[in-house]
Design goal:
The protein is an alpha+beta fold. It has two domains: 8-66, MYOD Basic-Helix-Loop-Helix Domain, subunit B, CATH 4.10.280; 92-187, 2-Layer Sandwich (Alpha-Beta Plaits). Helices cover 49% and strands 19% of the residues. It has helices at 7-35, 37-40, 49-83, 130-139, 173-187; strands at 106-111, 115-123, 142-152, 155-164. It has a four-stranded antiparallel sheet with strand order 1-2-4-3, covered by helices on one side. A hairpin with a 2-residue loop joins strand 3 (142-152) and strand 4. The longest helix is centred in the middle third of the chain and has 35 residues, at 49-83. It is elongated.
Length: 188
Amino acid sequence: MMKKYDGGSRKLERKTIEKNRRIHMKNLCYKLTSVVPSLSSQPYKCFPQDSLFDQSAAYIKQLQNRIEQLKEKRDATSRLLNNGTRNDPSCYDQPAVSCDGVRLPTVEVKEFDDGLQVNLTSGSERNFTFSDVVRIVEDGGAEVVKSGYTTVGGKVFYTLHAQARVSRIGVEITSVYERLQELVNRST
């Protein structure tokens, strides 16, 4: 006996599958908007998919560029360390000048949209503390978000990431830089 073809149930099944697919896509788009900063700051509406994907792709490219910059910086720091302190034990006895000719200590302050990054390199024979560096940054109107230091051979590397306490006012970058220079100059 032949079964009668029931087109109605297949049509209903396709509708259910399509409805589930749309719900799944909507959830994925919502997750995407919550991850991309330029989209997460806006209230979630039904973004046009072109805009959603364009902004997401731009954000991914921005992150890729940032990764490349950080890799280059890491490689440059690694080359600096390998050229000096690791290969020549006499570097440990020279607090003022490293073996690669770079005068220590060095101060570098970089400004970002919402804050600053401080990179300070000194010899292990220093007359200031890490808390002195943090205090100077905080006196300049910034709040230290992340900080740390490491000692490699005869060098101490300080890194601080700070953001402005009051975004309208910002951070006094030049004042922070000058005070850090005074601090390290007093210590040498």
